[in-house]
Design brief:
The complex is a heterodimer of chains A (169) and B (451).
Chain A lengths: L14 H9 L4 E5 L2 E5 L5 H10 L4 E9 L8 E9 L4 E9 L5 E3 L8 H12 L2 E3 L39
Parallel strand pairs in A: 2-5, 6-7
Antiparallel strand pairs in A: 1-2, 3-4, 4-5
Chain B lengths: L21 H6 L4 H4 L6 H6 L19 E6 L11 E7 L2 E8 L7 H7 L5 H5 L7 H16 L5 H30 L2 H22 L8 E2 L2 E2 L7 H23 L3 H7 L7 H6 L5 H5 L6 H4 L20 H24 L18 H6 L1 H12 L7 E9 L2 E9 L7 E5 L1 H5 L3 H5 L7 H8 L3 H5 L1
The chains are: A alpha/beta (169), B mainly alpha (451).
C-alpha cells in the first residue's frame, strides 16, 4: 500500500472473513483500497453483525450512509465500520438500500453504541433502522423537513431575510 | 402591514422554492425564518425546550414527590459548549440522563461535498476546534490513501511534531476545564497559560492559532519557520515544569481526590459496547492506542508508551491525560532531534502545486498550477477509511470519491460523538454535583459532536 496512511494490519489468512461469509451465505467478502469489506443485503445485516461480534469485533466504530444518486442503480449504501481490538483489524460492512424502501435492521441490540450513529444516519439520510429504541432526529431540529445530506437536498434553500429592504411604494 | 396569508414551509428539494412574501420583507426586521409558522407537534415543543417529556419507563418504586426532571443546558458553562442534558433526579441522585445535541450542527459534511479536495482542509479543521491539526491529518491521510501518493519523510515528521504538540495543548485545556468545573479555579488559568506557548508556536508556523489548514493532502502548507528548534526546546522545558506544578496542586490534593476518585466510573466492557475510545477507554484499563495499533505517518519510529488507568473514574482519566502529555512531549523531542531534511510536500505535480519560481520558466508548471487552483486535483474513484488517534479518541474519515475534483461523500467519525453516549452510563446513580465532573472528564468538544 503506497501513501502515507497505513491500513489496518490484516492477517495473511482470511479465516475470519470466511467464517463470517459461511455464517451468512448472502454476504460477499471483498477488498477495497486495502481494507476488508463485506457486502450483505439489508435483511441479513443484523445476523452478520452478530456473527462479527462473536468473531471478535467488539466495537462498532462508525455507521454512515453514502448517497449514490445518479451514480448507482441502488441509491443508498449503509456503511458499518467495525473494529476488533483483540485481532487489531477493521471490517467494513456495506449494505445497499433502495430509495423506495430505505429500511435496514438496527444494530443497537448487538452494539449499543450504534444508537447515536443510527440516529444520525436517519436524520441525515432518512434511512429507517427497524428495531431502534428511539429513532428520532439527533442533529437537526425535530420539525425539520427532509434529510439534508441527501444529494438532492440543496444547500441554502431556506429563505433568510436579515433586514427589511427599503421599498419604493 | 399585511397579515400573513400562508404558512411558508421550509423548502424541500424537488418542490418549488417558496416565495418570500410581502409581509416578510416589509414588515419585519427579523429573519424571515423566525417569523415562519412552525408546525407544533409533541416533539417540536419538546425540542424547543418549552416542555420536557419523560419518555422513560416509570419506576413505581420511586415516589413521585422525589422525582424531578431538570433541564441542564444548552447554555451552561460547564457543559463545554452547547450540550443539553435532560436529567432525572431523585432527590440529590441522578437516575437517568439523556444528552440532547445538535445545537452546533453546521452541516460540515454537506459543505465538504461542495469543496475540492484541496479546499476540504479548511472545512474539517473547524470540526474539533481544540485539535484542528488532527482533523486535517485524518482527512489528508484519507485523500492520500485514495491518491496513492508518497509523502516525504520531513513532511511526515513535521506532521507528527505538530499533531503531538496539538495533543498536548488539547489535553491542557481538558485538564484546565476539568479543574475549573470541580472548583480548582487556578487550573483554568494554568492550563490556558501553558497552552498559549504551543498556540504561539502554531501561529508562527501556520499563521493561525486555530483552524490552521496546515496539513494538506500531499504534505504541508509550509515548512517549519526559522528558529523552530529554539521554540520547541522552550516548550519541552517549560511544559514539563508546568505539569509538575499541576501535579503538586492536584495529584494528592484531598479535595481533588475526593471529588474525582470513584466518580463517573465506566468499565472497559461498557466502553467497547458504546464505542468509547481515547483517554476514557485507556483509563478503564484497555491499552488501545491507534498510534501503536495502527500507526500512521511514521509514528511507529518513535519511542513512547501507552498510558492506562485501572479504575475508569474521573481521577484516572485525569492521570491518563497528564501521562499522555509527557509521552507526547517525548515524541516531540525525538522528532525534533531527528528531523529529516528534504521537501515538506510531495513532488507529485498532479497533487501539489509547483514552486513559484518554476512557473516563470516552465509551461508545464504553469498548467499544473492553473489546474490545481481552478478545478483541483482529481482523486481516483473509490472509498476509504482513515483513522488516527486524536486527543479524544479514534478520529476517522470515511471518504468516497467518484473520480472528480470534489468528494462524493466525506464523513467524519467524531470521537466526541460516540463518547457522549457513555455519559448516561457514567452518571447513573451519581450525585448531581458530580455531573460536571463527568462531562469535563469526557472532554467533549461540541464542534466535533455536531459537525
Amino acid at each position: 500500500m503506497s501513501g502515507d496512511g497505513s491500513p489496518g494490519p490484516v492477517d495473511g489468512s482470511d479465516e475470519m472473513l470466511a467464517g463470517l461469509t459461511d455464517a451468512v451465505p448472502s454476504a460477499e467478502a471483498d477488498r477495497s483500497v486495502g481494507d476488508d469489506v463485506i457486502r450483505v443485503p439489508a435483511p441479513d445485516l443484523a445476523r452478520l453483525a452478530q456473527a462479527a461480534r462473536a468473531a471478535g469485533f467488539e466495537m462498532c466504530a462508525d455507521i454512515t450512509v453514502v448517497d449514490y444518486l445518479r451514480v448507482r442503480r441502488v441509491r443508498f449504501e449503509v456503511v458499518v465500520n467495525l473494529l476488533s481490538l483483540q485481532h487489531n483489524r477493521r471490517l467494513r460492512i456495506l449494505v445497499p438500500v433502495t430509495e423506495d424502501d430505505p429500511e435496514v435492521p438496527s444494530l443497537v441490540p448487538v452494539y449499543p453504541g450504534a444508537n447515536f450513529l443510527e440516529r444520525e444516519a436517519y436524520d441525515m439520510f432518512g434511512i429507517r433502522f427497524t428495531g431502534h429504541p428511539d429513532l428520532t432526529r439527533i442533529l437537526m431540529p425535530d420539525d425539520w423537513m427532509g434529510h439534508p445530506l441527501r444529494r438532492d437536498f440543496d444547500v441554502g434553500a431556506v429563505p433568510v431575510q436579515f433586514k427589511a429592504s427599503p421599498r419604493v411604494s | 402591514m399585511a397579515e400573513p396569508t400562508s404558512t411558508t414551509d421550509i423548502w424541500v428539494s424537488g418542490t418549488e422554492a417558496p416565495e418570500v412574501s410581502e409581509w416578510m420583507v416589509a414588515g419585519t426586521d427579523e429573519g424571515a425564518q423566525e417569523m415562519e409558522r412552525h408546525e407544533t407537534t409533541e416533539r417540536s415543543v419538546e425540542q424547543r425546550g418549552s416542555r420536557v417529556v419523560d419518555d422513560w419507563v416509570v419506576d413505581d418504586t420511586i415516589d413521585d414527590d422525589e422525582r424531578m426532571i431538570v433541564n441542564m443546558g444548552p447554555q451552561h458553562p460547564s457543559t463545554h459548549g452547547v450540550l443539553r442534558l435532560n436529567i432525572e433526579l431523585e432527590g440529590e441522585i441522578v437516575r437517568r440522563v439523556k444528552p440532547i445535541i445538535g445545537y452546533l450542527h453546521t452541516g460540515m459534511e454537506k459543505t465538504a461535498e461542495t469543496l475540492t479536495f484541496l479546499q476540504g482542509g479548511t472545512n474539517v479543521t473547524r470540526m474539533d476546534y481544540l485539535a484542528p491539526l488532527h482533523n486535517e491529518l485524518c482527512y489528508s491521510l484519507a485523500v492520500e490513501r485514495l491518491l496513492g501518493v508518497e509523502i516525504p519523510p520531513r513532511a511526515q515528521a513535521i506532521r507528527i511534531l505538530m499533531t503531538e504538540l496539538n495533543r498536548v495543548s488539547s489535553h491542557l485545556v481538558a485538564t484546565a476545564t476539568n479543574g475549573m468545573d470541580i472548583g480548582a479555579l487556578s487550573m483554568m488559568m494554568y492550563g490556558f497559560r501553558e497552552r498559549e506557548l504551543i498556540l504561539e508556536f502554531f501561529e508562527k508556523t501556520t499563521g493561525l492559532r486555530m483552524n490552521h489548514n496546515y496539513i494538506r493532502p500531499g504534505g504541508l502548507a509550509a515548512d517549519l519557520p526559522d528558529g523552530w528548534e529554539e521554540d520547541v526546546a522552550e516548550i519541552l522545558v517549560r511544559i514539563p515544569r508546568a505539569i509538575q506544578d499541576y501535579e503538586d496542586l492536584l495529584k494528592e490534593n484531598p479535595i481533588w481526590m475526593g471529588r474525582t476518585q470513584g466518580i463517573g466510573i465506566i468499565t472497559a466492557d461498557e466502553c467497547l459496547a458504546y464505542g468509547v475510545t481515547g483517554p476514557t477507554l485507556r483509563a478503564a484499563g484497555v491499552p488501545w492506542d491507534l498510534r501503536k495499533a495502527q500507526p500512521y505517518s511514521g509514528i511507529e519510529a518513535y519511542d513512547f508508551e501507552v498510558v492506562t488507568g485501572s479504575r475508569g473514574d474521573v481521577y484516572d482519566r485525569y492521570r491518563v491525560r497528564i501521562g499522555e502529555i509527557h509521552q507526547s512531549l517525548r515524541i516531540v523531542e525525538q522528532v525534533a532531534d531527528a528531523m529529516p531534511r528534504g521537501d515538506y510536500k510531495t513532488g507529485d505535480r498532479k497533487v501539489s502545486p509547483p514552486p513559484r519560481q518554476r512557473i516563470d520558466e516552465s509551461m508545464e508548471a504553469l498548467i499544473h498550477h492553473f489546474k490545481i487552483y481552478t478545478e483541483g486535483f482529481k482523486v481516483p474513484a473509490g472509498e476509504t477509511y482513515a483513522a488516527i488517534e486524536a486527543p479524544r479518541g479514534e478520529l476517522g474519515c470515511y471518504l468516497v470519491s467518484d473520480g472528480s475534483g470534489a468528494p462524493l461523500r466525506m464523513h467524519t467519525r467524531a470521537p466526541s460523538f460516540s463518547n457522549l453516549q457513555a455519559l448516561p452510563i457514567m452518571m447513573a446513580d451519581s450525585l448531581v454535583a458530580d455531573t460536571v465532573a463527568c462531562i469535563a472528564s469526557l472532554d467533549p468538544v461540541m464542534g466535533d459532536v455536531d459537525r
